[in-house]
């Protein structure tokens, strides 16, 4: 057992407007992946805490949250966004201590985007409409939009606050009440978010946070609870399958944002310098722990050597290390277990016949913390596990191709279908290829550019449903059609 070496904060559950420990007093340690220090304890919730939180959320559905006017709800949600921005420095620090990601990244992307999620979806309330249909003089039909009820939000550890707010903001905007189960590895910003919601005037019971583990614990109890009407889940595809099976008993509405093995397709006519700068980000930002990272890079043969030479050289320049050093580009992986998993794939790549052009090991001088050098692998083919399976770390494979048909066939030869990037200056080819890639999002000559009004989600085993703009409201609200005989 580790001892607390650098106390940052202890995390309690937030149930019915109050911070509470678990009924049995159980806690687990929160470890900073960059130092391996224990930085606090976390209340370990289970079925009992989930039940209390769901009961509070169910009661709150018919409390002041329901009687608030749209303008009042908009004001409360805007205030949540404002308070996130006011506490940006603190939240960015906590996010980096929890995840090991560079603090400049938390401060420029994760936390501002979390605030924007609230500002964006509070504005969106005004656009919520439903349909009216009249057929001859027989009947008038009109639909009313209402909340789904109590919604369970289950989140991963890679973009903790950004992804939590991506679900929480539209769920609240549509009038639901919520029980959140953050990833056990990243509890801190979810705890502060609960405080912010309370300070912004969100009524008691509307937002609840239960910390704990997923399988056979808080996560599964939330999924199986009969009074939870919907689950929005982001995480691994394998976990999604388990959740789908356990949600079947109560036939819950599900929204799924799952894993990916995203292709990055580079044609020789593209601007290689621009490609390389963006590909460095799409490969290694957030230690490669972003579901949208492009981990399969396909380069047209005539540009392959030049691309590799430049890409490897630029990758070697990326500074790996202390998340609180402003020059750091790649921080620490989330946990020892994940470090071992990613390292296992690097070993496997060599067994499968691959060559590591750079990276593949712990950087010199960083003995503590789960640091791994950004890694580029060549010499593998589509049948290799390293090319097929999601690694979720700073590891990419580069494969040459000769024709559009050939690359499309390889790109689509996967059960994933989250995102893709296509690089070309040929307009017709850009549209042609983008339209044939089996993915929920295809970027052309860019990556990670997001307009929150647009549909976000994956095809195949990368997800079910779409979130973003009206799509989020479709998930987080129910329609009742009222038919009046004329
Ligand atoms: P996991 O699937 O392991 O966990 C996600 C969440 O589910 C955690 O809170 C976890 O709890 C919980 N959980 C695990 N098992 C169960 C269960 N049986 N019932 C209910 N809840 C459960 O994912 P990771 O946290 O490892 O995140 C990485 C994955 O997330 C990658 O596959 C990545 O691609 C994907 N992802 C997808 C995104 C998208 O938009 N498509 C965005 C970001 C990530 P606990 O914390 O205890 O493990």
- Give the helix level as a range of percent: 25-40%
Q: pLDDT below 50 for ≥5 consecutive residues: which ranges?
A: none
- Tell me the number of strands: 20
Structural class: alpha/beta
Structure overview:
- Helices cover 39% and strands 21% of the residues.
- A seven-stranded mixed beta sheet has the order 14-15-16-13-12-17-18, sandwiched between helices.
- The longest helix has 22 residues, at 103-124.
- The model has no long low-confidence stretch (mean pLDDT 97).
- With 486 residues, the chain is an alpha/beta fold.
- The chain has helices at residues 47-60, 64-67, 70-86, 88-99, 103-124, 160-173, 188-200, 218-224, 237-247, 272-284, 301-316, 336-351, 385-388, 404-411, 427-436, 469-476; strands at 13-15, 18-20, 27-31, 38-43, 132-135, 139-147, 150-154, 177-181, 207-209, 230-234, 253-257, 262-266, 294-300, 355-358, 375-378, 395-401, 419-423, 441-444, 463-464, 477-485.
- It binds NADPH dihydro-nicotinamide-adenine-dinucleotide phosphate (NDP).
- NADPH dihydro-nicotinamide-adenine-dinucleotide phosphate (NDP) binds at residues 154-158, 181, 183-184, 213-215, 219-220, 223, 234-236, 239, 242-243, 257-260, 291, 390, 392, 418, 458, 463.
- NADPH dihydro-nicotinamide-adenine-dinucleotide phosphate binds at residues 154-158, 181, 183-184, 213-215, 219-220, 223, 234-236, 239, 242-243, 257-260, 291, 390, 392, 418, 458, 463.
């Amino acid at each position: 057992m580790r001892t607390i070496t650098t106390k940052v904060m202890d995390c309690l559950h937030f149930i019915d407007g109050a911070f509470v420990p678990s009924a049995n007093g159980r806690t687990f340690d929160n470890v900073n992946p960059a130092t391996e220090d224990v930085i606090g304890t976390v209340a370990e919730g289970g079925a009992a805490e989930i039940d209390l939180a769901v009961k509070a959320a169910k009661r709150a559905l018919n409390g002041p949250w329901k009687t608030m006017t749209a303008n009042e709800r908009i004001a409360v949600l805007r205030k949540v966004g404002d308070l996130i921005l006011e506490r940006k420095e603190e939240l960015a620090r906590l996010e980096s201590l929890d995840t090991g990601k560079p603090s400049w990244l938390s401060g420029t992307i994760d936390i501002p985007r979390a605030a924007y999620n609230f500002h964006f979806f509070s504005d969106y309330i005004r656009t919520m409409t439903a349909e009216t249909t009249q057929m001859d003089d027989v009947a008038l039909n009109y639909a009313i939009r209402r909340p789904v009820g109590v919604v369970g939000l289950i989140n991963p550890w890679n973009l903790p606050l950004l992804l939590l707010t991506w679900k929480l903001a539209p769920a609240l905007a549509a009038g639901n009440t919520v029980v959140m189960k953050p990833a056990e590895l990243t509890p801190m910003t979810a705890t502060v978010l609960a405080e912010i919601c309370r300070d912004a005037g969100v009524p008691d019971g509307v937002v609840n946070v239960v910390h704990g583990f997923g399988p056979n614990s808080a996560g599964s109890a939330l999924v199986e609870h009969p009074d939870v009407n919907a689950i929005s889940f982001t995480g691994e595809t394998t976990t999604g399958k388990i959740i789908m099976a356990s949600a079947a008993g109560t036939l819950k509405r599900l929204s799924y944002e799952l894993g990916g093995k995203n292709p990055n397709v580079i044609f020789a006519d593209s601007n290689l310098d621009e490609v390389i700068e963006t590909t460095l980000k799409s490969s290694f930002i957030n230690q490669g722990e972003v579901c949208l990272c492009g981990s399969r890079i396909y380069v047209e043969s005539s540009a392959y050597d030049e691309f590799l030479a430049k890409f490897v050289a630029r990758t070697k320049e990326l500074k790996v290390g202390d998340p609180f050093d402003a020059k750091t580009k790649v921080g620490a992986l989330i946990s020892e277990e994940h470090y071992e998993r990613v390292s296992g794939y690097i070993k496997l790549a060599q067994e499968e016949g691959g060559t590591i052009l750079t990276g593949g090991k712990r950087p010199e001088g960083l003995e503590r913390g789960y640091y791994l050098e950004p890694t580029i692998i060549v010499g593998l083919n589509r049948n290799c596990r390293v090319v097929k399976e999601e690694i979720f770390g700073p590891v990419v494979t580069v494969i040459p191709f000769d024709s559009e048909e050939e690359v499309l066939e390889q790109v689509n030869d996967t059960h994933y279908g989250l995102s893709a990037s296509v690089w070309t200056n040929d307009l017709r080819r850009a549209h042609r290829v983008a339209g044939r890639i089996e993915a929920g999002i295809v970027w052309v000559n860019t990556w990670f550019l997001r307009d929150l009004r647009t549909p976000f989600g994956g095809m195949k085993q990368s997800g079910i449903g779409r979130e973003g703009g009206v799509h989020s409201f479709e998930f987080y609200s129910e329609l009742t059609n009222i038919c009046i005989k004329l």
